[in-house]
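Components:
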Amino acid sequence: VYNFSAGPAVMPVPVLESIQRDMLALPGVGASILEISHRSGTFVAIAEAAEANLRKLLSISDDYAVLFLQGGSRLQFSMIPMNLLGKGQSADYILTGSWGNDALKEAKKEGETSVAWDGKSTNYDRLPKNGDLKLNPQAAYIHYTSNETIQGVQFKSEPEVGEVPLVCDASSEFLYKPLDVSKYGLLYACAQKNAGPSGVTVVIIRKDLLKRSDPNMPGYLNYQIHADNGSMWNTPPTFGIYVLKLVTDWLLNDVGGLDAMYQRNQDKAKLLYDVLDESNGFYAGHAQREDRSLMNVTFRLPSDELTDQFVGEAKKQSLTDLKGHRSVGGIRASIYNAMPLAGVEKLRDFMVEFKEKNAK
Ligand code: PLP
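Structure:
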């Protein structure tokens, strides 16, 4: 089955094979990853390798801490303002879709916020252009969502925000291409799209920002505590970190790094967008052409009946999880890093055939 789910999503086959091999007993250990202490030398080496792989893939400098946390990206919606938004300060939010709005909703519970840009008037089909942002130079941080999973709009580069720390929800694009981490104050991503299973969330935070965490806040929510304890203040999500290590091994050794991954992702997305562009409007893309996502391809068919028929017939051909999110409708094909080219080619062929049969 080729599963186009928005997450949890497809995993690289070599990673699944390694998990299967290790599941009864890790080589040389005689126990599975589920059965060993997070303080054991074996697990500490796995966690260190996962971090080292991320540092290598993204060229993360020592100015940044890399944290492996639980609670998903949604907990970050709260932890970010709890840690970074001081009394009397305000934080800016750029709203390009559903997840940015959800992040703002949580931040409002913690302090003052301001909306720097909102794409609501066009149902989040496009991104702000340079000069569109209403920025507060005194803001505690500015938050944006680099890829909006539901709408399928994706920033090609970071918004220009001056000196204010840039905070990015990269959940649904993390590791899809190289990134200049030095442009960010904090970047976070739940793993269950491009980096592993649900249960582990990666937070990359500039170390000077750790000073903002109030020592009196609940311990688990405090970035400084996690950084001081190497993400082992409590029992970390050991299985997720182990899979993250395997996924980053795959990116480094099998794929050949993030430049190669980016090329693959561009090639895959082009196959589907070409069908949209050549369909005379039968497949109408949700996102404006220049802002569309390489990860989540969103489009509508001429009617709800045809949409249901599309989803049903695709499923019969083992192309699953294509129904769009209810707020956008239509179809969403999530083609994250691990979706093989063959899966996208099969979907492309299905789309061409479906249009030939059903276009008036
Ligand atoms: N942010 C984005 C961009 C997402 O796509 C998702 C999940 O789909 C989330 C946040 C929420 O992540 P979690 O379910 O891990 O809290």
